[in-house]
Amino acid sequence: MARQVNTAGIKLVQQFEGLKLEAYTCPAGIWTIGYGHTKGVKRDDKITAAEAETILAQDLMQSGGQVEKYVRVPLHDNQFAALASFVFNAGIGSLTASTLLRRLNNGDYDCVPTELAKWVKAANPATGQKVTLPGLVKRRAAEGQLWLDTGSSDPFLTSTDMPQQIHADDARISYSVAARDGLRVRAGAGAGFEVLKTLAKDSQVFVVREKDGWAAIDVEGDGAIDGWVSMDFLKIRQG
Fold it and tell me: H helices of 71-148, where?
């Protein structure tokens, strides 16, 4: 039997998605209904509150199943719910392509809230530009807090007082563009794919994954893949 998202996870999703019984377009321009449901939704669609609850349960079942498929380390209920909420909102492709999944599967549980916090941008349908949305910042913070809610009795971990010595957590390697005339960013891993844009020499990027000498890159540091470039023209950034 598939693992169920717990009550805390369901409430988190309901809080941030809100309940809409008539179809509407989300900030990214996607038709949505109920609690953030998008599959097959069309203009003028209507549902009842009971139908919205049923659809949400089905959507979270699917998101949870995808978390179980790709996460290879044990998760307690709140950790599982936090990732199911993230997948429900950002999509399974965002998880599978993320530094979060790689680090977590290597046993780095503490990285998750920090990595979640990078996924706070959406493309403005009016301009095509990715921008940070306050709602996503708040949701990622809530998911991170749920992830950390393990019921620990350690006073250091559970204290709400602010420590006066804090440390950054970003294990990703930063690269610089080494191509003198700029580096073409393509839609796929190969010279035959469409050129999306050109990055100037010394531009900073993060490599999300590699394939046959090509790198899927994150230009803005938000965890999203912005295209593919040849690894021959990237060098590890110093300092």
Answer: 77-90, 92-96, 99-105, 112-116, 134-148
Q: What is the dihedral of CA 18, 5, 222, 38, to 10 degrees?
A: -50
Query: Which residues, other chains included, contact 44 with Cβ-Cβ below 8 Å and sequence gap of 6+?
Result: 22, 23
At position 16, the amino acid (one-letter code) is F
Architecture of domain 174-236: Roll (2.30)
Going from N- to C-terminal start, the domains of the chain cover 7-149, 174-236
pTM of the full structure: 0.74
Question: 7-149 architecture in CATH?
Answer: Orthogonal Bundle (1.10)
The number of residues making up the chain comes to 239
Per-residue pLDDT of the chain (239 residues; tens, 9 = 90+): 789 999 999 999 999 999 999 999 988 888 999 999 999 999 999 999 999 999 999 999 999 999 999 999 999 999 999 999 999 999 998 999 888 999 999 999 999 999 999 999 988 888 888 889 999 999 999 999 999 998 878 888 878 788 887 766 666 678 999 999 999 999 999 999 999 999 999 998 988 888 899 999 988 776 678 899 999 999 987 65
Q: Would you please indicate which residues are annotated as catalytic (active-site) residues?
A: 17, 26
Hey, which residues does 174 pair with through a beta bridge? 206
